[in-house]
Amino acid sequence: MNRRGFLRASAASLIGLRNLPGLFAHQSSPARGAQRLKIDHPLADPFCLKWGGFYYLTGTYSTGRPNQTGRAFDLLRSRDLEEWESLGPVLQIPDYEGSREANYWAPEILPRGNRFFLYYTSDSFGDPYRRFVRVAVADSIEGPYQSEGRPLTDEPSIDGHPVYPTKEEGYLFYTGNEGNPHMGQLLVDRLTSPTRLAGNPAKVFPNETVEWEEGSFILRRDKEYYLFSSQGNWRNDTYHVLVAKSKKIVGPYDRISDRQGRAVLRTNEQQIGPGHNSLFEGPGGQTYICYHAWDQGHTGRYAWVAPLEWDNDFPLVGETG
Q1: Ranges of each domain in the chain
Q2: What is the pTM of this model?
Q3: d(C-alpha 253, C-alpha 250), whole Å
Q4: What is the largest CA-CA distance in the chain?
Q5: How would CATH label the architecture of 3-316?
Q6: Which of 39, 69, 125, 300 has a beta carbon 3.0–4.6 Å from 64's, enabling a disulfide?
Q7: CA-to-CA separations, 164 to 31, 54, 225, 233, in angstroms, rounded
């Protein structure tokens, strides 16, 4: 089943999913301390990073159409997570076949040495079978980022998440897209450099085949690795965030849930389909989660942040303060 088929099927099964015990229970409780960021537009797939005294925020949003402006991915900055200044789009559109008529989404910034690497997904002429994770480079976190547009993976891919557990050891987590033999599954491959992969991808959950899983993000805590990811239909309230953990970054990962068997984030009275999260160091050095969610009017997916708390080994995002 391709992604379009999955979206249709998951929409059709929405009522059944709502009846699953635990997963969508207690939907009336928004996240504790959660706040919708004060920016004047939707921002899907948000990525937040603290760097040099500022919080930097980007995601699937560009001022103007990339095929007209030649740039994509607005970057915003803030000193306090309250007031945000837009620096405008920072990725210079690469020059490859179909790049001017492509879709661009899910950017993440990796500081590495004295340079900054922006991982993003784009296609050619909107073709999902020509959709890949790519990387651009800049000398400043504020860009501009330049890219040849060369795919990082051999097979179609989306939602690249780079992580370096040590100075020398790097990995890219991503989802196989349409045309990939592991379509909809989380994959991991070794980064031989920030711009090259070893070319030996492996399934993160080798004993599972899910309908679709995306938006992976790794957090290291107490010598263990926590893998956050999103499942469900991003268009409705079945979208939610799950977590798994492992003692090794490449796995094996074990799915975990709270004492009620629930997900990390799920639909509540203020947020529909929360997901595709990132994690960052927030005020006081506490880990914060950043994610998007549809508003009640379904006008767009807006960026939210909340402090992350823990119940033993399970991350909690509680109620709005």
Answers
A1: 3-316
A2: 0.90
A3: 8
A4: 50
A5: 5 Propeller (2.115)
A6: 69
A7: 29, 22, 12, 30
